[in-house]
Amino acid sequence: MAAVSGPALSADPAADAVRRRKLREMRTLAVSLLVFAAAVYVATLRGHGAWGFVNAGAEASMVGAMADWFAVTALFKHPLGLPIPHTALVPKRKDDLGKGLEQFVGENFLQEEIIRERVLGVHIAQRVGDWLAVPANAERVVRETAEIARAGLSRVRQDHIEALVNEALVPRFREEPIAPLLGGLLDEALRDDLHHGLVDLMLEEMHDWLVANPDTVHEVLGERAPWWAPESVNTYVIGRLHEEMVRWLADIRSTPDHRARRALDSMLDRLASDLQDKPATQARAERLKERILDHPAVINTAVTLWNALRKALLSSLDDPDGAVRRRLMVEVEAFSSRLRSDATLRERVDRVSADAAVFAVDRYGAELTSVITQTIERWDGKEAARRIELHVGRDLQFIRINGTIVGGLVGVLIHTITVVLR
User: Fold this and answer.
1) Are 140 and 336 in contact (CB under 8 A)?
2) Which of 134, 208, 218, 304 has the most Cβ atoms closer than 10 angstroms to its Cβ?
């Protein structure tokens, strides 16, 4: 796998400049302590008495400073450029370090108990409810949702709808027997009296049309009247027929238990039974289904309905005061109110959020942590060492500083013990 060059790893030049300056300051401090210890050592080299303690401390400080300088430097490069074994560890073993870091994150952070405890401790439902209670935040949610929905609707083209109908819906409808489904739906509708509303609407429309269009009725029936009958007789008969039809429909409309209604119920009940149990009726229903699916109007109707629906939705989504946005706002406010007032709902939302987080980690945790290894493998070794040193090198300089100070103290202690033992 090709290594990534230096510039590809630089994310924030300004932040890097600050880190580089602080690293330089700490290095200068560590070197200054070493130089100071060396100067004290030289100045007290032939000293006796108390100066012997100072000289021993300075000598030990130099040893500690040099040893810790070697240890810190060996992490990132060869000290003094010498290829000493087990030095330049980061450039040489960056892939192993990446795998180790991946395992560390996976074993210590992406565990079910940790994830669940953390998600439940955040109280997501309460925070969401409080956040949505702010009108500006609720409006933002509605606005963002509308924009996302609009973008999604705009990307659906006519050929997408045609492909959906031709490649998904029509083949599925061909495979699925339609007669038992229609029979079951019709049977349920009859048991629940759902068809009565449709029948009432049909009767209302037919009655109103007959009342409003007597001339059309006379014209249609007149075309079928006997040619040999006198015009006045035809006009009288057609008028009487029109009056009787209007009266009959009005009677059916106003009488819930009318004989015609019972006859219609009986016919529909028989049709529902035949669609589910009678092979001949089922075969006719399947043939009708095939003729409908083969008709070109199916595609045109689907596209027309989609275009009309999309146009209406887009128009409402674009209007801040449109019905869709108003409804979304009402639902968001209601959801916020429920979250803030219903402890049971909050607990359920928190539990579902924790379950979702655990599921996501369990399913995709390995892919998530593998990003660490894959990213580090792409880095150039020397550049990776430089970047890591830039981030943690300032803190590592404290090792050199502490080594200088602690080494001096230990040197004084050892010299004291030596003097006492003599």
Assistant:
1) no
2) 218
**DSSP code at position 295:** S
Beta carbons of 399 and 56 less than 8 angstroms apart: no
Q: What is residue 316's predicted lDDT score, i.e. its pLDDT?
A: 83
Show the DSSP H helices in 278-322 as ranges.
279-294, 297-318
DSSP 123: T
Any bridge partners for residue 4, and if so which? 379
Q: What's the gap between Cα 57 and its chain centre?
A: 62
Show Cβ contacts of residue 419 under 8 Å, excluding neighbours closer than 6 positions: 52
> Cβ(93)–Cβ(386) under 8 Å?
no
Q: What is the pLDDT of residues 313-325, one digit of tens each?
A: 888 888 888 888 8
pLDDT at position 228 is 77
Q: Please report the DSSP string for 92-105 in residue order.
A: HHHHHHHHHHHHHH
Alpha-carbon dihedral sign for residues 379, 382, 383, 385: positive
Eight-class DSSP state of 379: B
CA 59/CA 417 separation, integer angstroms:
16
- Compute the distance between CA of residue 46 and CA of residue 58 in angstroms, rounded to an integer: 13
Mean pLDDT of the chain: 85
* pLDDT(235) > 80: yes
pLDDT score for 59: 92
CB 404 within 8 A of CB 65: yes
Question: How far is 110 from 118, CA to CA, in rounded Å?
Answer: 11
Looking at the predicted structure, is the pLDDT value of residue 90 above 80? no
Amino acid identity at 223: E
Residue 244 CB coordination number (10 Å): 10
Q: Which residues, at least 6 apart from 291, have a Cβ–Cβ distance to it below 8 Å?
A: none
DSSP assignment of 163-198, as one string?
HHIIIIIHHHHHHS-HHHHHHHHHHHHHHTTTHHHH
Mean pLDDT of 209-224: 86
* Confidence (pLDDT) at 141: 92
* Residue whose tokens read 């998600």: 119
Sequence-distant (6+) residues with CB within 8 A of 306 are: 156, 158, 161
Q: Distances from the Cα of 333 to the Cαs of 140, 147, 326, 337, in angstroms?
A: 12, 19, 11, 6
Q: Is 94 exposed, middle or buried (0-12, 13-18, 19+ CB in 10 A)?
A: buried
- Tokens representing residue 336 in the block: 């916020």
Least confident among 4-13, 133-142, 218-227: 4-13
More confident residue, 269 or 231: 269
